[in-house]
Amino acid sequence: MSQYSHPTPTSFFLDEEKRTLYLSWSDEHESMHDWELLRWACPCAWCAGEGGQPGVLASKKTLTPEETTLVNIEPVGRYGLTPIWEDGHKTGIYTYEKLRAMCECEVCKKKRPVKR
Ligand SMILES: [Zn+2]
Ligand SMILES: [Zn+2]
């Protein structure tokens, strides 16, 4: 038994047509993540900034197709995943909590207040 009880991803699927990442979870949830939204949410210091400094995403209005094309996913320890993007970027660690909080499936969207 682990003291860390957050659901963990068990498999993933990259839908190139819909440009969406699907993750299956240990609690049987299937989460959906639009590639572009995922890239905009990159939490790394380069993209999101660090120590009060804005990251590069703060000054961008658009991203290139390479920047928003997901080619693979790698596990990080037991708490997160790193997406590998076509432009070579792979420093963003998305924790399981963050991914679940970003899930765009109908069930999760309804539970969340609508932003934008
Ligand atoms: Zn990044
Ligand atoms: Zn969901």
Automatic annotation (TrEMBL):
| Name of the protein in question | Gamma-butyrobetaine hydroxylase-like N-terminal domain-containing protein
Alphabetized, the UniProt keywords read: Iron, Metal-binding
Which InterPro entries has this protein been placed in?
A: GBBH-like_N, GBBH-like_N_sf
Q: Name one GO molecular function term.
A: metal ion binding
Q: Where are the transmembrane segments?
A: none
**Domain Gamma-butyrobetaine hydroxylase-like N-terminal, chain residue ranges per copy:** 15-100
> Which Pfam families does this one have?
GBBH-like_N (PF06155)
